[in-house]
């Protein structure tokens, strides 16, 4: 994520390249879900636990989206009511708290999912770590670009992204410590929760942002390349 921010302040990627990265990341995460998480969930035959965990995952992600969207609307509403030019102009001291809180929560969930992956097995955790690395690279790019457009300096933008990325370590620490000894029904609930969260991330976040650009065959191909790459990697690892 820090590397993505540094790349953005040095030379921001074009919209087509950013869309390709988002497509590829979505394909990678979808492959990890289909190849690693889903088979482990199905083979234990615990429908009640799966329904509970999956439902909680969907509810939490929808609730977080509602909460963060309200936060993002508050600064724009405040600017609309302000009439003084000093308030209307963006300054280096003004932070987009709605955006940063949304990203922090997203990264915290990513860390928890990473902990869930390693609780399932070393291979699952490693593949998920690679997949989330690609996602966070694109997230670091997008966040730094947004901060630069808001009037923040290059060093400040990278520092803010670096501070926000610490939420990943917090989430991963909670996931690996709390879930390390999870077995049976509890693990099924946790895995199903992670399954719903990852599917939400792919369909409602990554692909939604990726489709903001005009879709081309090459951009669509990036999704399937990401999926196939990690499907083959999961088979040979």
Automatic annotation (TrEMBL):
Record carries keyword Transmembrane: yes
Annotated keywords: Membrane, Transmembrane, Transmembrane helix
Chain segments annotated as transmembrane: 20-38, 50-67, 97-119, 126-145, 157-179, 186-203, 218-236
Origin superkingdom: Bacteria
Record carries keyword Transmembrane helix: yes
UniProt protein name: Transporter
Source organism: Hymenobacter coccineus
Lineage of the species this protein comes from: Bacteria, Pseudomonadati, Bacteroidota, Cytophagia, Cytophagales
């Amino acid at each position: 994520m820090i590397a993505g921010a540094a790349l953005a302040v040095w030379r921001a990627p074009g919209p087509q390249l950013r869309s390709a990265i988002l497509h590829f990341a979505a394909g990678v995460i979808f492959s990890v879900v289909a190849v690693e998480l889903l088979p482990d969930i199905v083979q234990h035959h615990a429908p009640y636990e799966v329904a509970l965990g999956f439902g909680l995952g969907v509810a939490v992600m929808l609730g977080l989206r509602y909460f963060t969207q309200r936060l993002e609307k508050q600064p724009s509403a405040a600017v609309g009511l302000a009439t003084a030019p000093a308030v209307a102009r963006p300054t280096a001291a003004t932070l987009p708290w709605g955006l940063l809180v949304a990203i922090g929560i997203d990264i915290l969930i990513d860390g928890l999912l990473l902990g869930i992956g390693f609780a399932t097995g070393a291979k699952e955790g490693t593949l998920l770590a690679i997949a989330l690395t690609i996602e966070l690279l694109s997230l670091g790019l997008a966040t730094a670009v947004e901060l630069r457009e808001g009037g923040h300096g290059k060093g400040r933008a990278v520092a803010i992204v670096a501070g926000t990325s610490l939420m990943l370590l917090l989430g991963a620490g909670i996931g690996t410590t709390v879930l390390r000894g999870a077995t049976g029904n509890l693990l099924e609930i946790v895995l199903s929760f992670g399954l719903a969260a990852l599917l939400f991330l792919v369909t409602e976040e990554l692909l939604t942002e990726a489709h903001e650009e005009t879709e081309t065959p090459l951009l669509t191909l990036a999704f399937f390349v990401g999926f196939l790459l990690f499907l083959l990697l999961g088979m040979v690892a």
